[in-house]
Design a protein that fits this description.
The complex is a heterodimer.
Chain A lengths: L2 E8 L6 H4 L24 H4 L5 E4 L11 H7 L4 E4 L4 H9 L4 E3 L12 E5 L4 E4 L4 E4 L5 H8 L3 H7 L7
Parallel strand pairs in A: 1-2, 2-3, 3-4
Antiparallel strand pairs in A: 1-5, 5-6, 6-7
Chain B lengths: L4 H9 L10 E5 L2 E5 L15 E4 L9 H17 L4 E2 L7 H7 L8 E4 L13 E4 L2 H10 L1 E5 L3 E7 L8 H12 L6 E5 L8 H10 L8 E2 L4 H7 L20 E6 L6 E3 L8 E3 L10 E4 L1 H4 L2 H11 L9 E4 L4 H9 L2 H8 L2 E2 L20 E5 L14 E4 L2 H10 L9
Parallel strand pairs in B: 2-3, 2-5, 3-4, 5-6, 8-9, 8-11, 9-10, 14-15, 14-17, 15-16, 17-18
Antiparallel strand pairs in B: 1-7, 12-13
Helix pairs in contact in B: 5-6, 9-11, 9-12
Classes of the chains: A alpha/beta, B alpha/beta.
Chain lengths: 166, 409
């Protein structure tokens, strides 16, 4: 299923990795990191976000370090990230985690927070179900869509026997 | 159609005659760098001789957890017979070490799970930070993918004025042009001849804050001299074709620049001339990290604090980029000068820069730093403010206790 429907959370430009996973949180076990996501800029958000929600952001999303931001969003239930533009490393880390991600110029002004979005991440079509509007994103190249479809990088390595089965 | 240097390296490493913006390429990785942590569940690896293992963020281990991680890395080194391993005592920040040890080489591809890997672009080396899971993929398979982005050509002309540094150039650009997400930077122009390897490494490192995919310097006499007797393997430098296509050309007259300060929170569209923020109180001044922990940074800081004292109420922390740099700074007398002034000189680590250890900020505190990031919460408390500037501006601010123009001290 390439069409994902969920409630929209809006964030601004230049959302960085220190906001997504604060420095102190990288020292914590992986399963404890997600609850510190956006604790500096939007305290309490992790208690409100739910399974299937869609994260919308502005330009330069994910600027910063190599922290596994995709894993954190997946753990919080985010089904898809759409941003006006992505930092390259931020995008890689969403793809690595098997998280559908889509650059889309003009997406921020097409949604209010809380609107319902249906995102076809393979074709790039994004529909605002609440306001009945459509915007067109730029779908990932096929090779990268395949990594996402496989569930991310580690799933692929495990399937080929490079990593021990847990 | 001609290719840029970046396109040439991507083509040669993906077995293609040419590549162009929009392509996704699968490339062979020449050098893969791992810091602090190695997974215990890896069954087989592609080539131990392409690996570089070291400790930098959590060194010497500040927690039991990090001590156990270091132990696990040493076990990995033994198990797979990794030759390029830098234990505590020979440690340094990964990007500083690979340059210093001649392991980041022109025309090659280097990856690392740290975002400032673009640092090695100063060595005409195509280098990029990756996620941890793709570094595991490279460990196992020796390959990764890149999206080929358009390249901006930056021409530097002229000479920097007194007390203006390469750090100021790389702050000026995002202040004027914003971020370069999805795009590359290639550095050109006659002004490069006057920029040392230390300065180029600073600029390439901070290119991560401009969101550049790659940031590549040319192979010229400055780089050739740096690599003589240092390069651990033979290499083939790359040069752009005369008809290479660039999406944008930025011309910068170095002689017109003044010291730049990046205000707290973000880097794109956020730099100002130092004059706009002079007088801002600072609780901490920091020089260190892969951006500015090199010998020339020690020299600048020592020259500025010589015969002066760090202001009461301000702490000044200086962290070298490697154990070797610390040794050289001791030998040159810089460490003594800094300590006489009241600075703290630490062992080499990423420590304070990522808010890990060795100099965090408290609630509401203000820091001026020549490290890599000014994001909210980056260096400790989420209510602290981090300004970024050159080591000269940081040292000048340390002795006055307020942000200070180093030209006026």
């Amino acid at each position: 299923m390439s069409a994902l429907t969920g409630r929209v959370w809006k964030f601004g430009h230049d959302i960085n990795t220190d906001l997504i996973i604060p420095g102190f949180a990288i020292l914590l076990p992986a399963d404890e990191q997600p609850r510190h996501c956006f604790s500096a800029n939007r305290p309490g958000w992790v208690d409100e976000v739910g399974a299937g929600d869609v994260l919308l952001a502005g330009r330069n999303f994910g600027v910063g370090s190599g922290r596994a931001i995709g894993d954190v969003f997946v753990a919080l239930g985010i089904s898809c990230v759409v941003a006006e533009s992505f930092n390259g490393l931020g995008l890689r880390n969403c793809i690595n985690a098997g998280l559908p991600s889509l650059p889309c110029a003009g997406v921020l002004e097409s949604f209010d927070e809380g609107d319902v979005a249906t995102v076809d991440w393979l074709s790039g079509q994004i529909r605002n179900d609440t306001q009945s509007r459509i915007v067109q994103g730029q779908p990932l190249p096929r090779a990268l869509q395949e990594i996402v479809s496989a569930g991310g990088v580690e799933a692929a390595l495990r399937a080929e026997g490079y990593l021990a089965t847990p | 159609m001609g290719m840029t240097s970046i396109e040439k390296i991507l083509a040669s490493h993906s077995g293609q005659a040419s590549v162009q913006p929009g392509d996704v390429v699968v490339v062979d990785v020449d050098t893969a760098v791992y810091f602090d942590f190695m997974r215990a569940d890896v069954q087989r690896i592609a080539d131990p001789d392409k690996l570089v293992l070291l400790h930098d963020h959590m060194v010497p281990a500040p927690t039991v957890q990090s001590a156990n991680m270091a132990k696990q890395m040493r076990e990995f080194v033994e198990k797979f017979g990794v030759k390029n391993y830098f234990p505590v005592g020979a440690h340094g920040i990964s990007h500083v070490l690979v340059a210093q040890e001649g392991l980041a080489l022109p025309g090659t591809i280097l990856t690392n799970a740290d975002s400032h890997t673009c640092s090695s672009g100063a060595l005409n080396c195509l280098a990029r930070g990756m996620g941890g899971s793709e570094m595991t993929y490279i460990l196992c398979k020796g390959q990764t993918w890149f999206m080929v982005g358009p390249t901006t050509r930056v021409n530097l002309e002229g000479t920097l004025p007194e007390r203006v540094y390469p750090r100021d150039i790389i702050h000026y650009i995002p202040g004027q042009y914003g971020d370069f997400a999805g795009r590359n930077l290639e550095w050109h122009g006659g002004g490069l001849a006057g920029i040392s390897m230390d300065g180029r490494l600073t600029m390439a490192t901070v290119s991560a804050e401009l969101s550049a995919e790659f940031s590549l310097f040319p192979y010229d006499s400055v780089l050739e001299e740096y690599l003589a007797g240092r390069a651990k393997r033979p290499f083939e430098p790359v040069h752009p074709d005369p008809d290479a296509e660039y999406d944008q050309v930025i011309d910068i007259d170095l002689s017109a620049l003044e010291p730049q300060v990046v205000r707290p929170g973000k880097v794109a569209w956020n730099s100002v001339g130092v004059g706009e923020v002079v007088g801002q109180r600072v609780d901490q001044a920091f020089i260190g990290s892969c951006a500015n922990g090199r010998l020339s940074d020690f020299a600048i800081a020592a020259e500025i604090v010589q015969g002066r004292k760090v202001a009461y109420g301000t702490r000044f922390i200086v962290t070298p980029g490697s154990q070797t740099i610390l040794k050289e700074a001791v030998r040159a007398g810089y460490v003594e000068t800094l300590m006489e002034a009241g600075a703290v000189v630490t062992s080499s680590t990423c420590g304070a820069c990522f808010g890990g250890h060795m100099g965090l900020l408290g609630d509401g505190e203000v820091c001026i730093t020549a490290s890599t990031r000014n994001f909210q919460g980056r260096m400790g408390s989420p209510t602290a403010d981090v300004f970024m500037a050159s080591p000269a501006t940081v040292a000048a601010s340390a002795v006055t206790g307020v942000i200070t123009d180093p030209r006026e001290l």
